[in-house]
Amino acid sequence: MQSQPGSSQFRMKLLLDDGMILNPVRGRMSSTQEHLDRVLTGSMESMESVSEEPGMELAFCTGDNDGIEEDGETPEELPSFPSELSVLEKLGLHSTNLTEQDVEAAFAHLALAFRCDMFTLQQRVQVEKRAQDAAEENIQEELGQCRTFLERLTASCMDVSCKEMLEQLQCSLAVLAAAIKRATSAAEKLGAVHQEARMSRAAEVMVQHVENLKRHHLREHAELEEMKCLIQQNSRNRQLAETQGEVVSLLRGATLQHSVPP
């Protein structure tokens, strides 16, 4: 990603005689600081917007306000799948009282949504990574331009108080660079927490469905064991009855043989 050649030039004529450099420096430094704030805010908003629309690439503003350059890369269009949040809203899972049939239907829809998302997961990860890298490159480029401005001003400035102010600005710029890194890390953590919050209800419904299946399995297993015991008991009773019948028959036969006279 390249910026326009004229965007990094210092467009203010320095008045070095009679200590008149202070006002131009203050005006330029304030505009540079405001520009840095705008770039930082725009980059963070761009990262958040890309997380919501993964198929979109970004256009970044570099340099002065008169130079705007768009990313020349053609974004790859991704098939749009309903997000987990929209699926949950359509299924009405915000309600706490769900029947087992509702939970089972929600589980089927969520499983289908997860399978659909898996098809474009790697591609969406690459798009998000490119957007993040582009935002970080633009921020680092703006910081580099500000450092160049400060170095030129330091070399051109002869006033002691002005040099001290420029040194303070350089320190502030270093602090700003460190703050940008911390903000990027915090933004990633915040995005992960937001995703976890969006998926928590879906995970809860799926876990509830698994618990229902376990409960059904235990109940059916208990019924099966009870049925086995009944079958075995009936089998033993039938065998015992048959044995008793045979014994009675043998006894009757023996009694008849003894009762018959010779």
Description:
- Keywords: Coiled coil, Cytoplasm, Membrane, Transmembrane, Transmembrane helix.
- It is a single-pass membrane protein.
- It holds the Pfam family MRVI1.
- InterPro entries: MRVI1.
- This is Lymphoid restricted membrane protein.
- Helix 2 packs antiparallel against helix 3 and helix 4 (121-156) packs antiparallel against helix 5.
- The longest helix has 100 residues, at 160-259.
- The chain is mainly α.
- The termini are far apart.
- Strand 1 (59-60) and strand 2 form a beta hairpin.
- The model is unreliable at 1-33 and 46-85 (pLDDT under 50).
- The protein has a domain at 15-79 and 121-220.
- Strands 1-2 form a two-stranded antiparallel sheet.
- It is rod-shaped, with a radius of gyration of 39 Å.
- The protein is built from 5 helices and 2 strands; from the N terminus they run αββαααα.
- The protein has helices spanning 22-52, 84-91, 100-119, 121-156, 160-259, and strands spanning 59-60, 69-70.
Query: Helix-strand pattern, N to C?
Result: HEEHHHH
Count of DSSP H/I helices: 5
CA-based gyration radius: 39 Å
Mean pLDDT across residues: 71
Roughly what fraction of the amino acids lie in strands?
A: under 5%
- Main beta sheet: 2 strands, antiparallel
Cα-to-Cα separation, first versus last residue:
126 Å
Helix-strand category: mainly alpha
Q: Which residues sit in consecutive blocks of at least 5 with pLDDT less than 50?
A: 1-33, 46-85
